[in-house]
Write a structure and sequence with these properties.
It is found in: Endomembrane system; Membrane. By secondary structure, this protein is mainly alpha-helical. It is built from 8 helices and 2 strands; from the N terminus they run H-H-H-H-H-E-E-H-H-H.
Length: 203
């Protein structure tokens, strides 16, 4: 008499959105943004007209820009982000394309388990092939469509405004020596913590 067959159930594949690594990544982003904004200077101090004056030379303008960048770093990053957001919102198609590209990187590569091949229309793609497709798609979107020119033009406008303000803002009233370094603040999630979270998702 043959022994009864024990049914074996296949575990359900966990969605990338529900993985602990992805949730930790989102938590890290939220924490980093809150820490960054806690170092933001008052906007009234940024636009105080009493401390606006024309620089006497290019060297003085460069010195002012360097000091103001160090002091108003979070405010300047916020200003750049607002300009980029306004440019993208005024071009909905470019925004949709950019968000789709970002979602593709997140769900098809960064937080997709490495033991699960990508299957599209019945064809299985290896991790190297997936990476190659994403790199080519990113290159095409950034350099061969209007998305790239929109991002570049918005960034140039933002940098021009930041440099103009930094050159005309007199920094004598700023206490640069007492401030904490802001490098671990607003955008720190793009560094090691994000990389470690992505690596953990692919193990």
């Amino acid at each position: 008499m043959s022994s009864p067959t024990i049914p074996v159930s296949n575990p359900q594949t966990q969605s990338p959105v529900a993985t602990p690594a992805f949730r930790a990544f989102l938590s890290r982003i939220s924490t980093s943004i809150r820490q960054g904004f806690s170092q933001r200077r008052p906007w009234s101090e940024l636009i105080d007209r009493n401390y606006l004056a024309r620089p006497d030379s290019l060297s003085e303008a460069a010195t002012r820009i360097r000091k103001n960048l160090s002091y108003f770093k979070v405010n300047y990053i916020t200003l750049l982000a607002l300009i980029l957001a306004f440019s993208l919102l005024s071009h909905p198609l470019s925004l949709i394309v950019l968000l789709s590209l970002l979602a593709s990187w997140i769900f098809l590569y960064l937080f997709r388990p490495s033991d699960q091949p990508l299957v599209i229309l019945g064809r299985s793609f290896s991790e190297r092939e997936t990476l190659g497709i994403l790199v080519v798609s990113t290159t095409v979107v950034i350099f061969l469509t209007s998305v790239g020119s929109l991002l570049i033009s918005a960034s140039m406008v933002g940098f021009a405004l930041v440099c103009a303000h930094g050159a005309f803002r007199v920094p004598e009233d700023l206490f640069l020596d007492d401030q904490e370094p802001a490098s671990a603040g607003l955008l720190s999630f793009l560094g090691a913590p994000a990389s470690s979270a992505a690596v953990a998702a692919r193990v």
